[in-house]
Amino acid sequence: MQAGTDAIERGVYDRAVAEFSSALDSGGLTSEGRALAYHHRAVALQKTGQRDAAISDYAKAIDSAALPGKVLPKTYYNRGIALANAGQEAAAERDYLEAIRLAPDYAAAYHNLANLERRRGDYVSAIEHYTTAIDNMKGRDRKLPLFGRALSFEQSGQLAFAANDLQQALDIDPEFELAAAKLNAISPMLAANDDGSTETTTNPQVVPAALTPFQTAASGHERGQIIRVASIGGWRTTATRFPPKDETPPTAVAEVSPPSGELTTGSLRESEPVSERRPIQLAAVPPAASGLSEARYRVQLGAFREAALASRAWEEMAGDAAPVVGGSSYAIQKADLGERGIFYRLRAGGFERVDDAKSACRALEARKIACFVVENDA
After folding, report:
1. Are 70 and 274 in contact (CB under 8 A)?
2. What is the per-residue pLDDT across 79-94, written as a single tens digit (0 to 9) for each?
């Protein structure tokens, strides 16, 4: 097993496939060891473009019911990438949702889910899930869900919001050419519409974008072959190494992650396992303040799988957000999205005019808090 994980670390994926195949044929692995071997061999197969074989191995790993809890979300996530590449988008969406259920702060899974929603024209859901990815992601890769959300705003006719997200992406990476080109493309229309009118028009004029296929450049799983090894907490170029029970040497857990247009690999190093994170005590969902329930517009600061996560997010950002939206004017709204599950939307402020809500959003963005404007009954 160790020889296979070492081969993955070095980027020698054909050798990794051979090593894991030998381990599986040896008959000397525990149930957990076999499940991990299938998972790792699937990663190596996926790296070499053998998509169907990878899907089969991921299924064997999942069906074994022997994967450690910290690995299972990665397996669903990786298989989702392979299924989406195979054109099985409904199945891919189910796998991303299962990965999110198992690891509610799995930013990359939210991002990939939003990509699928954007492709089928469900821009409201895409914006919500891109926002959750942004809220749970740190570092330079945060530019990717910002770019995806910008495309969704653009397709919805909300050009100012799109421009805001594109500028944030460029602030993170000034050499992000796709974002720069898109911002240049929509800027003339934005200037023409800058007459005090509301953002969304009845028949929005959307820039025909040769750059719009963000799928290949930014997600790596929708038509491209760009895959990289990552940790469960984000899109770092790593894999998680941990010792399985009663077994040495340590086994590495690799994960395939989408993004930025080049194939990269990295050393296997330790990452905080999901099962060992500090438990979150569920907080009661606070009622909306009276001004919040009566005002026409609010700002949405995130969407989370658990009310406790939304509460914790507010606690973490309140010091920066409260001066803009008020310390007591936040609410957590439960939203049942059917097959997609239940989300808890963190919203704040209360504004009669959309321009005031937009100004608040700009002030929050300046404080590194992602947001967008919503109508109070939305």
Report:
1. yes
2. 999 999 999 999 999 9
Q: Which residues, in sequence order, are CB contacts of 222 under 8 Å at separation 6+?
A: 84, 85, 115, 116, 119, 215, 216
* Residue at 100 is within a domain: yes
Q: Residue 276: inside a domain, yes or no?
A: no
- Rounded-to-10 torsion of CA 141, 325, 293, 284: 70
Query: What is the C-alpha end-to-end distance of the chain, expressed in Å?
Result: 51
Same domain, 180 and 313: no
How many domains, the chain?
Answer: 2
Residue showing tokens 């939003």:
114
Residue type, 34: R
The domain boundary residue, chosen from 238, 270, 302: 270
| Residue 108: CB atoms within 10 Å | 32
- For the segment 237-260, what is each residue's pLDDT rounded down to a tens digit? 222 222 333 433 333 445 554 443
Highest mean pLDDT: which range of 138-142, 178-182, 206-210: 178-182
- The answer to whether residues 111 and 148 touch, using CB atoms and an 8 Å cutoff, is yes
CA angle 210, 213, 217 (to 5 degrees): 110
Range of the domain at 334: 290-375
- Rounded to 5 degrees, φ, ψ at 105 are -105, 25
Cβ contact 254:229 at 8 Å: yes
